[in-house]
Every structure is written in structure tokens, then in C-alpha cells.
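Deliverable D4.2, example record:
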Amino acid sequence: MKKRAVSLLLAFALLAVPALAYGGGTGEAVYMNETELAGGFTYRNAVSYGSGGRVETFTVENRPGSAVYPIVMACDTIYGGFTISRMTEYAEALGYNVVGAVNADFGEYTGVPTGMVVEDGVYKSSPEGNNAVGFSSGRAHVSAEPEVTLTLRNLESGYEFSTEHLNKSRQGFDAWLFSEHFSTVSTRTSGAGWFVRFELAEGDSLSLDGSVELVVTGVSRDGGSVSIGQGNLVLTAAEAAGLGAVADEFAVGDRVRLTSRCSDAALASCDWVSGCGDILAEGGHMTGEEAWNTSVSGTHPRTALGIKHDGTVVYHVLDGRRGGSVGAELTELAQDMLDMGCETVVNLDGGGSSALSLRMPGGEGLAVVNSPSDGKLRDCASYILFVTDSEPGGGASRLFLREDGEYVLAGSSHALGFAAADGALHSAAVPEGVTASAQRGSVSGGVYSAPAAPGEDTIRLSGGGASGSGTLHVIARPDSLSVSADGVAAGRLVLDALESVTLSVSAEYLGRKVLLGEGDVSYTLIGNIGSITPEGVFTAAGQGAQGSIIVECAGLRQEIAVQVAFEFDDMRGHWASDYVKQLYAAGIVNGVSATEYGPNSAMRRGDFVLMLYRAAGEPVVSGRAEFSDVPEDAYFASAVAWAAAEGITQGRGDGSFAPYDTLSRQEGFTFLYRALGALGVQAAAGDASLLDAFPDGDKVSDWARTPTASLIAMGVVSGSGSGLNPYNSL
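Output generated by the structure prediction step:
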């Protein structure tokens, strides 16, 4: 805890700006960047540090009156789920211009939403005792456990029957009503039960408050499931519900009126409704935790919705479990949203479901801006989509900075990039002659020069009748520096003579990448190892050279050891050439002479154990090996003593080790397998049945069977055309 507190104080000092008031729950934000994607539609990315660690959040604020407004969709049918990407594609295929989406209600494993669904005024799924949030004209209304009663009145007999269950998985109690919106397949029911099928009068659809006329077209007691069909409704109950008499009250041809009544008149007037989880805050105050759903307690990724006093709706996604964000408890989530100015807060589906997708400037299509904790997108039951009626295809109406939100080093320079969007948030051509100006730094010829002091810098853009702005976050120095060579992390380079590699340097600050500009990174060579360009292209000198490359950036320094591989004359073109180069550079092997390796020479037992000892870092050995043929002054004495102490070898069994004897393949396999732990390699014991795949697998000695099988399982040993050859020299 003390170490974390010190690092946070250092972070604030380096940023040299006051912490932004963000959350009393997950902690004050040390990073925050806002982008108004459209009038009244703003995206915010923030990072905070609390007692649990780093938390990253992704937030959309949508003001009433904005051209962007929310709708609700539960995929193509109530049964089954979609990923957020598939959901937006589906909505766009229906003609909606989608500019973003966020996961909404919890769902069953079948994809059926837990709570209510109303789509464009059509009632599609019942609340089942859950809370709900409705939308109308861009405004939101939260309803605590609304009830919707569905009453069927047989106009021929006057019989009435009521239920509250619409398009949910049928249970063993009460009767359940299904419409065509539930599934294109069937009612997906099982077991004994009865069904009454109704046909809707043409053009009618079920709403939260209203009535429709029906005609009975079938009554069945066959059980199982039945298809629903377009324009039809099915009333059903399991035999266990004991409602068989209800089905007797309907006959084919009967005219029936279905009336729906919602207990919340304000919700009934909403065009779009989604179920939701706990109401975490009302009237600007947190509600009682004792009433919250304990099954979603703990620290997790979260999705929530809040409503401000002016009607602005806040959609908040909080990452957890991956991507450097720990998640939050419900109380922390609620407090953060209260601190944002929300008066009402509801919890939505979280965990691996938490996802926010937006049409970001300069991109094609929609992009998921957070890091879902499953490592991939999860199928969810329903979504809140952000749409606009503005038509795409117009010219640029808003300009954006491509580097918006980036960290840059004080005093550094960067070429700026611009993006443009039309009124529908679709990418548009950037107008000619866009000009940029900086509040604190300067911009000349499209190149930004950061100020000498840390802090935020606003970049304003204009051109072609459009305008916009972006923010660059200027810092004094990064937290960390990393270097890769041709895409591979570089702590040590082993290169051929005259070989070239490109070094890539990246830096991070508070868990986010720092945008590095020309001149931010410098390179210094130690030793006559080659040459390097200012762009980081290193070309090795002649063979055998060794030294290091010093990489420096804003006071941080990283040293990369360089070994220009020496190649023995008799290894040129050999299949093992690259392996021998690396082993030689690491000091694990030597040649039989200054110029020859001797690839066809038989390996001796003492030399192989010496190689393993060097690979292990030549640890200090206390005492000597008690083998009669290993003198104290032998060049392999420490290696054999180490191998004996580690259980790698027990010798020949007669008190000798036979260091000069030729090493057989099965002996080499055994030594290597036993040394894996000392070399820091974890491996499970292989199944001896793997030896059966080789014609001479049964020739492997009992003591070598598990080691050989284990190396086969690891892919280290593959044998040859003649088999494993366990008694041949290694």
C-alpha cells in the first residue's frame, strides 16, 4: 500500500496539473479526455487509481435535444443473443444509422433478457419483477419493478384470464404468452402442456397499454413445443401448473380481446424500454445496499446508466479483470456516477458483457473502445443503441484530431493528423487547408511543438466551414520504456555479421502509451558493434563483436546487450547453425578449435552436463561430486557436482560417472528432462505411450521412458526416419 501511494504521488507531481474531480468511488481521475462526437453526444475516457488499483472507464453522455438518441433492441428475436458488433450490423440492416451501442439488460443462458423489452412501442418481453428504464424523445425514465398485466377476454363467452408473462422461458407455474418476436423456431418449451394459438387482427401489435383483437385458430394438448408464426400469439402452460381448465375456455373461431395494462404510466408512454438491474441511486443519494442483488457483488467490470437533473443520460462502462483495470464494487460505481452529477443510477449487465461501441472519428464502422474481460465479445440479451436520423454522405461538419487524448513529452514535436465526420458521424473527406492552433504549445506546418511544462493542451481546428478540437496531455517523463527488435522484445540481441534490425521504442505513463516524436529517443553504442541510425535501424559489425546499445528517452534508460554471432567454418549451411550461434554467444558451447565446432563429433557425458550447467547460469556448488573418475581439477568437476546435487545424474551405479564416455541419445534425453526445473522450465511428465509411435520405442530403457516421452510431448524430440535410436550417440 505504501509503495502504491508513493507512486501515485509521483504520478501527480509529474503530471503537474490538479487531479480532476471524477470519483469518490474508484478514485479521482489522473487522466481524462473528452471528445464531443456530435452536438450533445460526448465520449469520455478516464483512468483513476483507488485502493484496489488502476481503473479505466469509458463513458457516453447524451443530452436531450441531441440529434443522437437512444433506442433498445433485443437482437432479431427475444430468444438468443448477439455480440455488440452483430447487433449494430443487424440494426443498420433495418435502416438505423447507428453511431454507438452499449450492453443493456441481464439475460438467461438462452439469451432471453431478464427484464422488459419494448421496441418502437411494441411490447416484446415482460419485466418479471425486474426494474426497467424507458426512453422517449431522448429522455430516460427509470421504473422500479413495473407490472404489466395481460388479460385475454373471450368475447363469445365473457371468460377472462390474466397473466404477466410474455416471451420468457416457460416455467412450471402459471400460463405464458408467446408472440412471433420470441423465436422464429418455436415456443422452445418441453414436457407435457397445452397450447392455444391466436391470430392477430391485421396491422395490430401489442403495446404496454392498449388492446388488440384476436381469433383462436387452434387448441392443442400435445405437449412439447409449437411454432408461433408471424402474426400469431400462443398461450401455454405446463401440465404441472394445473391450468388445464383455461384451455377448455377457448375454441377455434372464438374472438378474443387482449388488453395490456402497465402499472407505471410514465413507462407506458416510452417508445423503447429495457430491463435493468438494481437502482443504485435515487434523488442524488445512494439507495440501500441491503436490497441490492448479491449475486453481482464484488469487484467486476460494470455497465451502468445514470440520469442528470437536466435529463442528460450517462452510459458508463468500467473495465476489469484485464487490460490494466481492476473493476469496481457496486458502491464504488454508484458513488462515481453521483460525483458525475447523476441523480438516478441503475446497474446494467456487467462482467464479460460490458462493452461500448462507437463510431470514432477517422475510422470505418464502429469500434469497441473498451477491453471486454472475456478477451472477446460476448453474446448479450439486449442493447441500448445510439442512433441519429441525420443522413450520411454529406461533407465535413466536424473536425477531429487523430492524436486526441495522447500523452506527449514536454518539448517534443509531432506531425498532427486530422479526421472529419459528416452530420451522421460517418467519416468524411478532410477539407483542404485545415489550420490548427494550440492553447499552450504551437503548431506550424501541421507540426505540433509541445510546451516545456506539463499539463493539458487544447488544439483547435478549422477549415472548409467545419471546426473541432482535441486535447494533448503533456508530461515530463514516462513511467516505463520498452524496446523491441523487429517486433520482438529486445533485452539481448544475437545477430549475424552485417545483419540489420529495426529497434522500436515505446513508453507508457499511468498505463497508457506515450506518443513519441522525432528526437524523443536517442541511441548510443558501447563497443565496436556496428552502426545505428536516428530512426533506430541497427546494422551489426563483423562476427565476434560484442557490446551494447543504450536507449534513452526523457531520463529513462535501457541497455540492450549485443553479440554478433561467431560462426564456425564447419557450421556454415548446417541445419543447426543458428542454434550453435546462439549457444556460443550465450557462453554455453565452445568449438573443438578456434574455427571448427565439430558437429559430427560424438558428445561426451561430461561435456553435455557442462553445457547444462552453463545454461543454468553456473550456480555456486558446495562440495564435490563423489565419483571416482571426476578429479577436483577437471574442467567439468563443478558441473558434475551440480548435476549430482540436482538429481540430474547418479552416475553409472558403480561409483563412477564416465565423463569421457560417448553420451547416448536416451542419456541426453534423461539429463535434459531432469534439468528442466533447474533451467526454469515447467513441464508435465509425458505419457510413455507416446513412444509407441516410433518403431524402436520399445528399445528405450525403463529409466529413460518418461524423460523421452516428456520431451516428445514438448516437441523437443521428434526422432528420425529410423526411430528414436536411443543407443546412438547424441
